[in-house]
Amino acid sequence: MPLDLDETIKALSHPVRREILGWLKDPASQFPDQQHSIEHGVCAGQIDQRCGLSQSTVSAHLATLQRAGLISSQKIGQWHFFKRNEDAIQAFLKQLSATL
């Protein structure tokens, strides 16, 4: 699926979403208290705690990042885990570089 440059830029326009992406770049050091294996990503509850915002606000930020293709999610049991989509991030950077 081709990358929507405008959608990605919009997703990155909010500082909290950029911060979440930064944390997910090195989840083991950014979320050391996570009880579950980091291989599936970071549990939504951990991101909620780290953000210090309401669960619904954090969910909206995560949904925006996911719609833009910058993160992926996986549900395991009752938990939702999020991780960066490195291929999409690299494609965005390449397309942005070619455009500007």
TrEMBL record:
CDD domains attached to this UniProt entry: HTH_ARSR
Location of the HTH arsR-type domain: 1-100
The keyword Transcription regulation appears for this protein: yes
InterPro entries in the cross-refs: ArsR-like_HTH (IPR011991), HTH_ArsR_DNA-bd_dom (IPR001845), HTH_MetalResp_TranReg (IPR051081), WH-like_DNA-bd_sf (IPR036388), WH_DNA-bd_sf (IPR036390)
SMART domains: HTH_ARSR
Database matches in Pfam families: HTH_5
Matching SUPFAM superfamilies: Winged helix' DNA-binding domain (SSF46785)
Keywords: DNA-binding, Transcription, Transcription regulation
Entry keyword Glycoprotein: no
Name of the protein this chain belongs to: Helix-turn-helix transcriptional regulator
Native source organism of the sequence: Pseudomonas shirazensis
Lineage, highest ranks first: Bacteria, Pseudomonadati, Pseudomonadota, Gammaproteobacteria, Pseudomonadales
